Amino acid sequence: MVVDDSVVFRSQLKNCLDGEQGITVVATAANGKIALDRLEREPCDLIILDLEMPEMNGLEFLEEFRRRKMPQRVIIFAAPTKEGASQVLASLHAGASDFIAKPTSAVSLQDALEGIKRDLLPKIQQFKIRHQSALEAGNGGLSSLAHQPLRDKNPELAPPYKSVLLETFKPQVVVIGSSTGGPMALEKLFSALKGRTTLVPILVAQHMPPYFTEALAKRLETVSGIPSAEGKAGEPILAGRIYVAPGDYHMSIQRLPQGPRPVIKIDQSAKRNSVRPAVDFLFESAAKEYVGSCAGFVLTGMGEDGKDGSMAVKRSSGAIMIQDKESSIVWGMPGSVHGVGAFDREGNIDECSRVLVYMVT
């Protein structure tokens, strides 16, 4: 179901999506009130929701949606502004699963629709795959086999990663990667640090566009009580701080010949795994600069970003924990790390929080 107050946008987006295999737009609505009424009569799996609408806006819809315990996934359309970023975090709190940024007014309608389609289709597909996997698992299907570690299916192909006992591992740096579902997972992760003194720096790569990462950093500071901001080029990496990769920039760690400690590197080199910032760049640089003393967490997210980086951390005698399938909105990123065996433990976000507390305090 497409929910937006623009009749042109509703019709154009319906035309775009209806042409994709396995996707059907079963209904459209001009505001949240109409959408709730139609959901009673026309069930669907996924809702594409605008936030700014008359009579009942997106946030009001989500509040009622959550109150009624409706099962659908919701993808938000949000303006790429500071206000839009704040609304996205509020909508994720209210029950939305993911979001995409609206195109700017500087592009034509056709270019805007192509951009939306490019960003939206992978997000629709990730929920479609999860929905099908759940059905297969419920019917005794084989979907769970695809997520067994490579070392379980083919022991002779497994890389020789040395296991690390996480409760006794004290890193000099912690790196975290996340995507779909990441903002809420990060909030839960960092809320466990409230009122504690952190002894190491923490660097985060969350797949988000500009403005949204700035709002995320501010939110993480609120829930953790730890100074948190977007990383800046050349900024020294200090203990007791959280650095968030800026939207549309890769963030990595580098050690300058004349400097006493590693610093932040920011660049707009080519996307990796179709994303920027990429978790792999951050993890690989941390593994290089903090040999034997780097810990990484790969949380919920689509795709395979973080797999190569986790392998690099393990090769450098570091530690990796991944979020488990059951608690992940999408088990793409942690699942890809699981598949190559480049991890020491998997667990839900509460278990990840406990391990993080062990490591950084």
Tally the structural domains.
2
Compute the number of helices: 12
Strand order of the largest sheet: 8-9-7-6-12-13-14
Helix percentage range: 25-40%
Q: How many angstroms does the end-to-end distance come to?
A: 46 Å
Radius of gyration: 21 Å
Provide the residue-averaged pLDDT: 90
CATH T-level fold name of the largest domain: Rossmann fold
Per CATH, the superfamily of the largest domain is Methylesterase CheB, C-terminal domain
CATH class assignment of the largest domain: Alpha Beta
Q: What percent of residues are in strands?
A: 15-25%
Give an account of the 3D structure.
The strands form 3 sheets. The protein has a 7-stranded parallel sheet with strand order 8-9-7-6-12-13-14, sandwiched between helices. A 5-stranded parallel sheet has the order 2-1-3-4-5, sandwiched between helices. Strands 10-11 form a two-stranded antiparallel sheet. The termini are far apart. The protein has helices at residues 7-18, 32-41, 58-67, 82-93, 109-138, 150-153, 182-191, 212-224, 279-289, 307-315, 332-340, 349-360; strands at 2-3, 28-29, 46-50, 73-78, 98-101, 173-178, 202-206, 228-230, 242-244, 250-254, 263-267, 294-298, 319-323, 345-347. The protein is built from 12 helices and 14 strands. It is elongated, with a radius of gyration of 21 Å. It folds into 2 domains: 2-138, Response regulator (Rossmann fold, 3-Layer(aba) Sandwich), CATH 3.40.50.2300; 150-360, Rossmann fold (3-Layer(aba) Sandwich), CATH 3.40.50.
